[in-house]
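Subject: Predicted fold for Esterase, 196 residues

User T.R. writes:
Posting the sequence so we have a shared reference for the thread.
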Amino acid sequence: MKSTLLVYLHGFRSSPRSSKAMMTGDAIKAIRNPDQVYEWYCPQLLASPQESMAMVTAHIEQSSADRLVVVGSSLGGFYTNYLAEKYHCKGVVLNPAVFAARELEPHVGMMTTYDSEEPFDFKYEYISELKDLQVSKISDPERYFLIAAKGDELLDWKEMVAFYEGAQQLVLEGSDHGIADYLDHLPQVVAFITSE
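User M.O. replies:
I've generated the structure tokens; pasting them so everyone works from the same file.
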């Protein structure tokens, strides 16, 4: 019996209750079988990037799974780069914030989460934490699958395509930052996760 730890990392101001996280989780539960076990880990990330990665790496390192796959959306995609490089595992990135420190610097201050309106303080020191986690170049593009939407209203799809040069890429005409049509593309995500 093989086991895979699947880590899903949500975006900035988001949560494990985001639609893409829940759809991905449902799809993974549906492909479990006696020969292949999937351990699903989709934590609520913390405001501090450093603390978030410490929490996730602690979970990864106590897992007894045979392999690891990380899926991340937006800021979660940035974290996916860090983890996929650290553990030499597969990464699926959904409209990733490839240069998160630059993207989030304007958002320093009090913020609220999207689904609960719960306030949190996004501190200036978190920008340097993001800089410390920055991957300058992915080492093995074949380990990555990028979904980038040309209609992303927050991030530049061309930057994503350039950063993941050589990786499997699905560039969507239109769509948006949240990838409203994600369900249509989920079979390709699952196929990438399950392929050896």
